[in-house]
Amino acid sequence: MEKNTIDDLFDDLKGRFDISEPNQGHENRFLNKLNANDLASTKTKEQLRFNWKPFLAIAASIIICFGLFATLQNQPKNLDLASVSPEMSATQDFFTITIENELKKLNNARSPLTEQIISDALMQIQLLEKEYQNLKTDLTESGKNQRVIYAMISNFQNRIDILNTVLEQIETIKELKTNTNEPKHTI
Questions:
Q1: Residue 1: pLDDT above 60?
Q2: In Å, how far are 18, 46, 116 from 180, measured between CA atoms?
Q3: CB burial class (10 A; 0-12, 13-18, 19+) of residue 143?
């Protein structure tokens, strides 16, 4: 195999090269073509770039909606005494426990003689419970107004007073019954 050197290669190509001068304005036409290619490649790159702005706006809107939804879900529909302060929470717990205990005593004291009194008392308690639910709505709407808080405490006290009064009446009925059933011994 024969090695050609560069000189041999050019000797072989002698006379085949175009050595004439280009036409006038050739350089300007060449530069215009180069600029056109650059513009075309820039436009292609811009077209290939993905426009994220609309998708970011949609994603931000969705995140805001979920945030509002979560915030609204965490807010209680109706506030009660426990939501006002720790002291009011303790007060509500005290009243609730006391009312439950009094209701248990009332149910244990049921008898044919006391049935009417107990059912009347339970109806009054239910009315006060409905009133309390309305007060909870008022408390939420008024922004923890002191008058509404006092009305809620008064509602609890009224329930306890009704239960205590009924229990006292039941005790009176029991005493009357035992006194009338005792034989009278006279000397």
A1: no
A2: 144, 105, 20
A3: exposed
How confident is the model over 121-137, as a mean pLDDT? 91
CB 87 within 8 A of CB 136: no
Q: State the Cα–Cα distance between residues 157 and 129, nearest whole angstrom.
A: 12
87-98 per-position pLDDT tens digit: 888 888 998 999
* Rounded Cα distance, 31 and 15, in Å: 29
With a CB cutoff of 8 Å and minimum separation 6, the contacts of 89 are 81, 82, 83
> What does the radius of gyration of the chain's CA atoms come to, in whole angstroms?
48
- Residue ranges of alpha helices (H) inside the chain are 6-12, 26-48, 53-74, 86-108, 115-142, 146-181
| CB 75 within 8 Å of CB 137 | no
Query: What is the three-class DSSP state of 24?
Result: coil
Report pLDDT digits (tens) over 66-88.
787 777 666 556 777 778 888 88
pTM of the model: 0.56
Contacts of 94 (CB under 8 A, 6+ apart): none
